[in-house]
Design a protein that fits this description.
Blueprint: H1 5-46, E1 49-59, E2 62-65, E3 68-72, E4 74-76, H2 85-95, E5 100-110, E6 116-122, E7 125-126, H3 127-133, E8 138-140, H4 149-162, E9 178-184, E10 189-194, E11 200-201, E12 206-208, E13 214-216, E14 221-222, E15 225-230, E16 239-242, E17 255-259, E18 265-270
Parallel strand pairs: 3-6, 15-16
Antiparallel strand pairs: 1-2, 1-5, 2-3, 4-8, 5-6, 6-7, 9-10, 10-15, 11-14, 12-13, 12-17, 17-18
Helix pairs in contact: 3-4
């Protein structure tokens, strides 16, 4: 028996339509059941990560997992002896010490010291992100901004709103007077000014980048504008030189933090 060509084509068309409807129905069922689980499964299937036990907390941004040293990405906590060093370390001890965590790599595998560079996840919690939000660290992206950068900046802004930890604002007489007027990355220069009609004593104040580079003021009062230049030179009333550093402000993006003599935040700027 033969079928007209038109009838055969109609049957094929109906089969294709039925198949598409079935696929759409199955997708809707999966989404209705638990879309977040599916989303996480897809993400983790495509993502490259390792699992390990946190054996020791070295400090606020370095841990030991399965015998390997791991430097937490996206953050920079205070050095030993600085304010909030112990608090940052305590947070990690109480949160992840002895726990099974997932380690996700960023743009680079290891740093100059051979430490693994990783984001640390405890179940669905981004621990690195929580350190910033809790006021234990500033956000830090020396290799350039990655997919997590916006989350870390939001966590920092939330920290500022909460006014806690290293985000606590300065309320000194000059905290509202000192302002950043220019940051010249190409020439490694910054220009700060005093917008008040009285001089500001800056002894013990600091200027810092996202990492470890820090300039500390000694015996200086600001009554106009001051240029701070990275490199060697003879200091004057209008220009100070930031030691022998090759550079402080990175081309890939950085932040500037000015703090008073009590380590309270006067201002910050990110680019």
């Amino acid at each position: 028996m033969t079928f007209p060509l038109k009838e055969v084509r109609n049957k094929d068309k109906m089969k294709k339509i039925t198949k598409r409807v079935l696929i759409y129905f199955l997708l809707l069922m999966l989404i209705a059941i638990d879309y977040p689980i599916i989303d996480r499964y897809i993400e983790e299937s495509l993502d490259d990560y390792e699992i390990g036990v946190v054996e020791r907390i070295v400090d606020g941004d370095t841990i030991i997992v399965n015998g390997s040293s791991v430097r937490l990405l996206g953050i920079n906590t205070p050095e030993k002896g600085e304010v909030y060093y112990e608090e940052a370390k305590k947070f990690l001890n109480e949160t992840i010490h002895g726990e099974v965590v997932r380690l996700r790599m960023g743009k680079e595998d290891t740093d100059l010291y051979g430490r693994k560079l990783r984001y640390v996840f405890l179940e669905e919690r981004n621990i690195n992100l929580e350190i910033v939000g809790g006021g234990y660290a500033n956000f830090y992206f020396p290799s350039g901004k990655d997919k997590y950068y916006s989350d870390f900046k939001k966590a920092w802004l939330k920290c500022l709103d909460s006014n806690k930890g290293i985000c606590e604002k300065s309320y000194g007489n000059c905290s509202l007077c000192v302002e950043l007027r220019e940051l010249d990355v190409e020439n490694q220069e910054i220009l700060i000014g005093n917008k008040c009609d009285f001089t500001c004593k800056l002894d013990g104040w600091t200027i810092k980048d996202e990492g470890r580079k820090k300039y500390t003021f000694e015996n200086y009062t600001l009554d106009g504008e001051l240029k701070i230049v990275v490199g060697k030179g003879d200091n004057t009333r209008s220009t100070l030189y930031w030691g022998q550093e090759d550079y402080v402000w990175t081309q890939k993006g950085d932040s500037l933090f000015i703090r008073d003599e009590n380590n309270k935040l006067v201002l910050w700027h990110s680019y």
